[in-house]
Fold:
Amino acid sequence: MSIIVFGSINKDLVATAPRLPLAGETLLGRDFFSVSGGKGANQAVAIARLGISTHMVGRVGAQSFGNELIANLQAAGVETENVFVDETVNSGVAIIIVDDAGENQIIVIPGANGRVDLDDIERLSRLLPTAQALLLQLEIPIPSVLAAAKAARERGVTVILDPAPARSDIPEELLSLVNIITPNEVEAGQLVGFTVDGEESAHRAADLLLQKMTRGINKSNNVNLKCVLVKLGERGVYCATPDQRFFLPAFPVSAVDTTAAGDAFNGGFATALAEGKSLRKAVVWGAAAGALATTKPGAQPSLPDRFIFDKFLQEQVGDY
Structure:
């Protein structure tokens, strides 16, 4: 059994500065580096490094960075035979600014990611019979995300959606096809129409999202787990299902760069589910992976391997 990630593959161009610039301001930076990224690729690498068979489905461009991005996925152990090289467009690029507190600003230019279409759904569909879960994000066209969710649902594969970048126009049909949704505070606020800035507002947002996810659903639809995970950054994670609610405080770490923390969370969470862990343990695994990712700069370079992850988890919570 394996996990499929269907989504974006980017080259991240990262600048560091003492603080984030104000609108219209030119700010003198400290350093520059480039690394492989993209929310889809980040999540695939996060899972593969934790030891789960992982397939990436998406696109890169032939005109820039494409071969390098594929090679980096392969080096992390990700299966890439279903990554299409588009000869007509550049690869996706993310321009990232990181400040001394580890906070960031990101601009994404989709490139090949914006060309993901039904041909890619066909490649995805061939992998579904042996898949445990499908991870989705919103850096590729929404119609393609919706088609992927439909294909997975028809085959009984668990669908995990990271609704990022934040947007308010996600089709309710997509939400009804999702088993687990993992927004951060900003994304949750966009989805529900009010500010989410702590445990109480996360509770309200989760209840509303659960209503949207289960609208029109009845027992005859053979629906599996419906779960909302609101990621509250350094405060922790709020988890809600129709049957349970709990809040998990964040692991204390010295944050350097939060760029891929959400992707690491999804990777750790999905890995735990694939290994048969309970929902609560899966949230702990996600939180641990996310915390570790903030302790190093860059997106994929910050994602922990299984040895580092197990050591951190053992030190923090014991046998989990």
Residues 218-222 have pLDDT under 50 and may be disordered. Residues 67 and 301 are 18 Å apart (CA to CA). The longest strand covers residues 54-61.
